[in-house]
């Protein structure tokens, strides 16, 4: 492990040095300040640092004096060891070394503190420029320049954990951060009396933190690391945060050097390079995920890994967790949420810590708006906006009336979700349901504003229909619409299935179900293929999952809307397994299969969105095929049409490259699709779902 320290050394000069230097000073009591001559001071420090470099013990990679003080000098040390040192321990190690090398006496170490790699390197470079160090730059030998990588950004910080953080203090801080129960439960495990605390032994678990943004994730990370350090579960106080990972220029050596020096500390990895909405997951990024998995396995004993997941970008991290799950245990911690009073207290805390002119309590209260439930990331976003506003309105007032340019086309308008729903083909009953729900929410909200009796009715739903009938799409749009209308606090849409709810061990299932409900707080929890929970009861925990779901549906009826989705017949059997489940579902919505005419209209819609042109001949041609397909069971509905169109684009690309070899394709060439691109034989072969890959044995 590489630990970077700075400290002060108080000492007395030997008589020989005092006598030799008395010619240049009228006051021998100044001790080392007698080197009033810059040239003498430079030469003395240079010789001294050279000597220190030569006699450093194996545990000390680098030790140097960066400046002279009136009663001693200021030093920096890079130590290569797995045991953190107190001031007394370091003094005992350094005293004989300094006495021999520097010819000083009565050595005492003061102000010992850990610093970041960046701070240490900066002090070394300053000394080097002042000619206090006449040695070659050791950082290339020590591989301390890993932060210069173009593959990722590295942010370092040092935790301040003195005095020792107690369990009670940790809980109080956690509650002020709107900590989730999963965080408080882990604090209880960290401070448990049965844990050994004599020394650092390794990491029994690592962590997976889910949050809305980096600020909320790092707030939890800092408190978690301080608690671990207080219980000797972390050696150093340095946190290395790896973020903005670029798959295109990733060099494995940079990460190897970083983790080599990060032993004993914490490494936070924000694996967020691939958005959930990206359909084409880059193979190059999969390579990065695989290498992260290998190197985490390599350093897991001595380095604490904290993997951060953002709600909008989870694909890469899920791959990494799946890669590591057999070898490393990760404790999952969710971002916390709180009520309006807790949110106001947290916002006030952030405001107090800010360097900007503080807002009044009333101003902070107004900034929260009309919501009643807040996540920690919501508060950080609100505070960031307040900070930006304060810069213009309170500090640099000359800018408060300026008209700033805003790009409006890049942002979705509030009407986009409604427009998208109305644009969808068919679904008359579903569109009417959404209007009813919005109206019901709006009326209940108004009753609350007028201090009338208002209790939000249960809005849990069951969506039934065959694959591709737009169940998930409608649920997503519903969450977006309710959020934009300020009828849902967060509008989060959390999709899950059996694998996300049912655990492998006793007691795990209930925990996982409750975590999903917490993640969906203020939004919609979408449980796809819910009947899978009871498909195989032997040796499973499906019943436990259902019972916990029923309990949470009642406890969180004002916070979470649950939507069950699946095939009609299987969903009917699923609801029959638990009467409490059926009674809590307010809406049963059936999504019928699309007609051939509707499928043809969907094809038109997809083509228009992709900027392509379809002739009436093409539409009639495809509709004829759709009439035959609709008679087949589970043909895929809208998903089938999308596959048809994608196959047509592939054949168009092949046709254009053959006909226009060596020529530049015009925009009109790319727009126009022909009837040959929608070949009948090819249409018959288009699958409605991905085909299995592998060998079949007959």
List keywords for this structure.
single chain; 698 residues; alpha/beta; Rossmann fold; 5 domains; five-stranded parallel beta sheet; 27 helices; 17 strands; 46% helix; globular; disordered C terminus
Write the layout of secondary structure elements.
Elements: E1 2-13, H1 15-21, H2 38-55, E2 60-69, E3 72-80, H3 87-102, E4 104-114, H4 117-129, H5 139-142, E5 153-158, H6 167-176, H7 181-190, E6 206-211, H8 214-230, E7 238-243, H9 252-261, E8 266-270, H10 283-299, E9 304-310, H11 315-324, E10 330-334, E11 337-339, H12 340-353, H13 361-367, E12 373-375, H14 376-395, H15 416-423, H16 428-449, E13 461-465, H17 471-484, E14 493-496, H18 498-501, H19 508-519, E15 523-528, H20 542-555, E16 560-566, H21 568-576, H22 579-583, E17 587-591, H23 596-609, H24 616-629, H25 637-659, H26 667-671, H27 680-685
Parallel strand pairs: 6-9, 6-10, 7-8, 8-9, 13-16, 13-17, 14-15, 15-16
Antiparallel strand pairs: 1-3, 1-4, 2-3, 5-7, 11-12
Helix pairs in contact: 2-3, 6-7, 10-11, 12-14, 15-17, 16-17, 19-20, 23-24, 23-25
């Amino acid at each position: 492990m590489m630990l970077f320290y700075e400290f002060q050394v108080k000492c007395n000069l030997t008589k020989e040095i005092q006598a030799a230097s008395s010619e240049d000073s009228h006051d021998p009591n100044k001790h080392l300040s007698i080197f009033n001559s810059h040239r003498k001071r430079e030469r003395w420090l240079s010789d001294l640092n050279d000597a220190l470099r030569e006699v450093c013990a194996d545990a000390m990679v680098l030790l140097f004096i960066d400046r002279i003080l009136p009663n001693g000098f200021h030093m920096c040390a890079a130590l290569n060891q797995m045991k953190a040192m107190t001031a007394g321990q370091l003094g005992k190690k350094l005293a004989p070394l300094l006495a021999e090398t520097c010819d000083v006496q009565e050595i005492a170490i003061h102000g010992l503190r850990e610093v970041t790699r960046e701070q240490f390197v900066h002090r070394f470079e300053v000394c080097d420029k002042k000619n206090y160090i006449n040695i070659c730059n050791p950082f290339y030998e020590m591989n301390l320049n890993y932060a210069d990588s173009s593959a990722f950004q590295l942010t370092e910080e040092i935790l301040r954990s003195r005095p020792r953080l107690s369990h009670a203090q940790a809980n109080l801080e956690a509650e002020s951060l709107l900590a989730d129960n999963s965080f408080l439960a882990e604090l209880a495990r960290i401070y448990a009396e049965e844990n050994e605390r004599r020394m650092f032994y390794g990491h029994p678990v690592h962590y997976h933190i889910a949050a809305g943004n980096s600020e909320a994730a790092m707030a939890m990370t800092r408190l978690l690391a301080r608690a671990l350090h207080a219980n000797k579960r972390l050696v150093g106080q340095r946190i290395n945060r790896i973020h903005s990972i670029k798959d295109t220029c990733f060099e494995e050596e940079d990460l190897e050097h970083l983790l080599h020096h990060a032993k004993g500390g914490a490494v936070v990895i924000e694996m967020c390079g691939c958005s959930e909405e990206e359909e084409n997951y880059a193979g190059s990024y999969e390579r990065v995920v695989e290498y992260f998995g290998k190197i985490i396995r390599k350093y897991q004993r001595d380095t604490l890994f904290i993997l951060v997941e953002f709600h909008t970008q989870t694909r890469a991290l899920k791959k990494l967790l799946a890669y590591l799950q057999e070898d490393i245990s990760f404790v999952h911690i969710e971002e916390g949420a709180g009520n309006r009073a807790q949110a106001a207290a947290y916002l006030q805390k952030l405001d107090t810590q800010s360097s900007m002119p503080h807002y009044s309590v009333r101003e902070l209260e107004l900034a929260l708006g009309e919501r009643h439930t807040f996540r920690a990331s919501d508060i950080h976003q609100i505070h960031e906006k307040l900070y930006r506003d304060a810069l213009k309105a309170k500090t640099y007032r000359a800018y408060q009336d300026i008209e700033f340019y805003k790009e409006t086309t890049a942002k979705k308008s509030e009407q986009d979700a409604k427009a998208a729903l109305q644009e969808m083909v068919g679904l008359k009953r579903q569109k009417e349901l959404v209007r009813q729900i919005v109206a019901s929410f709006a009326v209940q909200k108004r009753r609350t504003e007028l201090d009338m009796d208002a209790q939000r009715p249960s809005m849990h739903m069951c969506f039934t229909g065959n694959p591709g009938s737009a169940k998930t799409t409608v649920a997503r749009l519903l969450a977006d619409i309710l959020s934009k209308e300020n009828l849902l606090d967060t509008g989060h849409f959390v999709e899950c299935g059996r694998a996300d709810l049912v655990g492998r061990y006793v007691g795990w299932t209930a925990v996982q179900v409750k975590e999903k409900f917490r993640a969906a707080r203020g939004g919609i929890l979408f449980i796809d293929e819910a009947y899978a929970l009871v498909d195989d009861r032997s040796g499973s925990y499906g019943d436990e999952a259902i019972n916990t779901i029923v309990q949470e549906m009642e406890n969180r009826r004002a916070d979470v809307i649950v939507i069950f989705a699946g095939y009609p017949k299987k969903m009917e059997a699923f609801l029959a397994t638990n009467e409490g489940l059926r009674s809590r579902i307010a809406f049963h919505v059936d999504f019928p299969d699309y007609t051939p005419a509707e499928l043809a209209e969907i094809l038109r819609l997809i083509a228009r969105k992709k900027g392509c042109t379809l002739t009436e001949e093409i539409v009639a041609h495809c509709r004829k095929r759709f009439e035959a397909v609709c008679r087949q069971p589970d043909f895929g509905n809208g998903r089938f049409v999308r596959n048809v169109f994608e196959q047509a684009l592939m054949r168009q690309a092949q046709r254009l490259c053959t006909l226009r070899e060596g020529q530049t394709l015009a925009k009109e060439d790319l727009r126009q699709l022909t009837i040959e691109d929608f070949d009948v034989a090819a249409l018959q072969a288009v699958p409605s779902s991905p085909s299995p890959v592998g060998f079949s044995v007959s």
